[in-house]
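seq:
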Amino acid sequence: MGSSDLTMANARPASPPQATKTAKAPRLWELDFAKGFLVLVMVLYHWWSLFVSPFGEIFVYLRFLTPSFICISGFIVSGVYFSKYGSNRGAMARRLLVRGLKLLGVFVALNVARVAVSDLWLHLPIGRLDARTMVGIWLTGHGVGGGNDKVAAFGILVPIGYLLLALAPLVLAKRFGRKPIAVALAACWIGVVALGLAGAYSFTLELFAIGLLGGVLGAIPTDRIDRFVAKGWPAIVAAYAAYAAAIGYWGVPYILQVVGVPLSLLLIYALARLVRNWRPSNPVAFFGRYSLLGYIVQIALLQVLGHLWARAGLGFSGLAATFLAAAVGTYIAVWVADRLRAASPFLDSLYRAVFA
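struct:
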């Protein structure tokens, strides 16, 4: 994963290699920035729910966060790995299988650790683990509680893991290119509609479909995206304003998520191109190189801060201090991990064994 992150390495070579060997290529800075930006907004999202209010209109405008992570995952697989691995689809499929299984393993390990820490110190009001909540965790994505009483945290890792596992066999059909991903996307959308007509839904399936949508969009070459952003940014801003007005009025039904997630990511990508030469933007891109680690650390830090001070009448300065502590603490943890990896091949190998 390059420097390893939530969504795998995001380098796109100038021309696809034809050999069966894979080559390491430069990272795409704009995608690193986009992932780092999402991590920072997620810090705001979780901080707000713990220290300000678990409800509120602000969450309507932040609903793009979770599906954006999985959309980028699909985009990188299709837009980067198809070029990186060339005709060696077997190696690509093995990479996706291993990565998907690792993410599911990390999800289980993190939640076991969360329960242990809660029992020993935090005493979180974690909900009961039973058959119904197991179905919620692994299949439907709902019915597992919210906030600190969630039966399982770090839930985004499950649909991303499923996405990578599902993409593994889809990429093996070399003669069909990315068409199997589009067929799978259509099948998932049919499933989402069928569940809706039956009066049910699966948040996991909806996220999974958005990941496949990212896989379809990943077929668009980066240079075409760059040209569109350079010339069409006023249209992007106008479209996003219309989307924001729509969700402010109707909320965030799934159809608006399907439109809003790629639109939000395109707007962030356009912002990345605008600020690329600004020094303050580099820490955001650095976050993106470690988006999985940053995602995990910020949740852990906020759980601790929430246990100590959540809704304790801190006042504006106290609230600001808790937010800065979460954001700066997450950055320091990521920076330390990067320095340790650079200093020790063993620690680098250990990091890759878990996160890469």
